[in-house]
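Board notes (copied after class):
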Amino acid sequence: MNAGTRCVIMWYHDKSTFYVHDRWIVYWQKTSRKGPKPKPKGKDVLLMVADFVSADYGWLTSLDSAESARVLFKAGKNCEGYFTNENILEQAKKAMNILQCHYPNEDYIFIYNNASTHLKRSPIFFSAKVPITNRATGKPVYGLDGQTALTKKIPMAGAKFADGSLQSLYFLFSHKRAGVFKSMKNILQEHRIDVTGLRAQCDMDFKCEPPTLNCCCHWILFNQPDFAKVKFCLETHCEKQGFRALFFPKFHCELNPIEQCWRHSKHEYRMYPESSLKADLECNVVKALRTVSVISICRFFTCMWRFIDGYRYGLTGKVVAYAEKKYCGHRALPRLILKDSSLRVSLR
């Protein structure tokens, strides 16, 4: 590595839930004996874990392991609530502080999955996920808990024209409807877009798809640069401290090696003696997470890179999963994999 070049370390984030009565019970038993002890009824006490992992350092901790980015959260309506975007930002802040204090000579990228709690945008920025009109429906808007009605109106920030000048999304004070939000039609007409004869939205589900770009006002507005390039709160939160945040495509958990860390730790957790005490639950979860060594994590990352390498060849997920097992000793899949007849035969 050239002098002055900084390494880039990728930290993968995810959440997983451990249940107090989740145990692995397998044993031989004579037919004359009674069956196994029934599992306790009712909902299990649970503990949610949110953490970061990398192939270079393992779990995200300080050099002396006194500080950790791990969050133990008792999720549930009658417990600590639910893990929201505010909790995600708070954990990211904690992780960035640890890295800047103990590992200042490297650059870092946080990689998250495509969960809606990670993709929240600031309320002042505009969104075209729902049709924008200038008429109030009279229906209350509820908060994240689905029960508290929001009474405070937060005005959205302005957009920009092609020349970079600002566009107000509300009628100006000189207008007879000063302060009222403009409709989609008015916003598009100010951009010199012809909306004559276009309806507001094609259907209630908003399922317009490319290559059509001008089927309705809602779809045209949705594809405008100002609406399409609004950053998520998590992105801007990380960029303030010199970090980057990336997001996985939907339904691709095999690209996140921390999923295998959860599998390893849950396998160990299920071997511990069963206990209904909440203190034992947290103790067993922490102890199980410690069993995931850096060597095992590196193997999980190697598995992930083989999946990525297979997708690079254009292989499907089913074929890549089979090839990953067949060539488990390779960091990358062999170059002749597309000519491997055994792959085609085994997947018929």
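Comment from the instructor: The chain has a mean pLDDT of 81. The chain has ten helices and ten strands.
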